[in-house]
Amino acid sequence: MGDLLKGISNFRGAVFPGHSALYRKLAREGQQPHALMISCADSRVMPETITQSGPGDLFVCRNAGNIVPPFSTLNGGVSSAIEYAILALGVSDIVVCGHSDCGAMKGLCRPEMLEPMPNVAAWLRHSHAAFSIVCQAYPDDLSEAERVRAVGMENVVVQLDHLKTHPSVAAKLATNEITLHGWFFDIETGEVQVYDGALASFTEVQEGEALPVAFTGRNHPHVMPRVSATLAGE
């Protein structure tokens, strides 16, 4: 805690003064972030640092395993953050960001680790599909580190699919007002791989290249033309 207090003191004395005008503007006008990032609560994964974002740039939701539970009538922090980001803040992009050496993914691969943590085990049921994919579709001779990494990447895709079950997301996809992204951060190298929905794979992106996306409204089937045609036929 002493280090945290020193950090607060340094922020107030050395950092804040150079950004005081921005903070006053944000306090006066409110926040207008363009993206929601759903990332892991792992202390080594810092969305603002990875993206070099400043105050007001990102709306961040962090939890164990960067999980997005499928939509249900039960209230939850992640679901509320998604709904608020879209309907109140009007974000145009959502990023699900996984990472290497993820403890949650290790728990999926080694269930005995979760025996003393029933709440974590219950939470990770939302990632069981990722583990099943790796068990069934990947080689049996993967090392433990390779398996954890593979589960982490598949988990990003699974959570993107869960995102599309949320009414606020589905509606914005239908009107082409939102784009979904899947990222995977490598802690050791600092590299970020991006999920390309068209190729169904992760790829490294070089500076200056177009950023691949996971899902856009153009990939969402629009029903209105079909409904109109049906009504006209009647």
From TrEMBL:
Its EC number is 4.2.1.1. It catalyses: hydrogencarbonate + H(+) = CO2 + H2O. InterPro entries: Beta_CA_cladeB, Carbonic_anhydrase, Carbonic_anhydrase_CS, Carbonic_anhydrase_sf. SUPFAM superfamilies: beta-carbonic anhydrase, cab. PROSITE patterns: PROK_CO2_ANHYDRASE_1, PROK_CO2_ANHYDRASE_2. Keywords: Lyase, Metal-binding, Plasmid, Zinc. Binds 1 zinc ion per subunit. GO terms for biological process: carbon utilization. GO terms for molecular function: carbonate dehydratase activity; zinc ion binding. Zn(2+) binds at residues 40, 42, 99, 102. SMART domains: Pro_CA (SM00947). Its cofactor is Zn(2+). It comes from the Bacteria. Reversible hydration of carbon dioxide. Belongs to the beta-class carbonic anhydrase family. This is Carbonic anhydrase. The lineage of its organism: Bacteria, Pseudomonadati, Pseudomonadota, Alphaproteobacteria, Hyphomicrobiales.
